[in-house]
Amino acid sequence: MMQKDIVAYHESLQKDERDICDLLYAEINSSLPDAESKIWHRHPVWFLEGNPIVGYSKLRDGIRLLFWSGQSFDEPTLQPEGSFKAAEIRYTDVNQVNKKHLAKWLKKARKIQWDYKNIVKRKGILERLK
Q1: Which residues are CB-neighbours of 87 under 8 A, at least 6 positions away?
Q2: Mean pLDDT, range 41-52, rounded to an integer
Q3: Edge-to-edge strand order for the sheet containing 51-59?
Q4: Which of 4, 53, 71, 73 would suit a FRET pair with 114, their CA atoms being 20 to 30 Å apart?
Q5: Which architecture does CATH list for 4-111?
Q6: How is the chain split into domains, by residue range?
Q7: Number of C-alpha atoms within 13 angstroms, CB side, residue 129?
Q8: Pairing mode of beta strands 62-67, 87-91
Q9: Residue 6 DSSP symbol
Q10: pLDDT one-digit tens code per residue, 78-128
Q11: Using alpha carbons only, what angle is made at residue 115 by residues 112 and 120, rounded to the nearest 5 degrees?
Q12: Residue pLDDT, tens place only, 57-71
């Protein structure tokens, strides 16, 4: 069952955006049933052992799906994001979401993790966990 704060996030979206997020939510929860999901920095994010793994957010040009360790997945469809190891893909229509690719990325997200949980403690240095 979707948490109240994530329900509220989805309800704040336009129908086409909500359709994308509903699909992403279902696929992420199915692939990462042991992950904790919550609103973090104003959008839904999934954590394994306190480490952010995947999340999505509404941007001006669509919905961004972000994998915190995605640059290490060796997936050309995912674009580098930020100055650490994150990678993203953006969607403007639910039909753009390739469930097969998403399942593969989520499997990699579990196996390939950088320690974002302790990045502040390590003064911005990321270490590979898995």
Answers
A1: 66, 67, 70, 71, 73, 75, 78, 79, 80, 81
A2: 95
A3: 36-40, 43-48, 51-59, 62-67, 87-91, 79-80
A4: 4
A5: Alpha-Beta Complex (3.90)
A6: 4-111
A7: 21
A8: antiparallel
A9: H
A10: 999 988 999 999 999 999 999 999 999 999 999 999 888 887 787 877 788
A11: 160
A12: 999 999 999 999 999
Rounded distance, CA 112 to CA 78, Å?
A: 15
User: And the tokens for 99?
Assistant: 């469930």
Reference 48, options 94, 101, 107; nearest CA is 107
Residue 28 in 3-state DSSP?
helix
Question: Is the sign of the CA dihedral 125, 82, 62, 58 positive or negative?
Answer: positive
State the pTM of this model. Answer: 0.92
Q: How far is CA 4 from CA 15, 26, 79, 87, 95, in A?
A: 18, 15, 31, 27, 26
Given a contact cutoff of 8 angstroms between Cβ atoms, the answer to whether 87 and 81 are in contact is: yes
The single residue listed with the structure tokens 């639910």 is 94
The owner of tokens 């097969």 is 100
| Confidence label for 130 from pLDDT (cuts 50, 70 and 90) | low
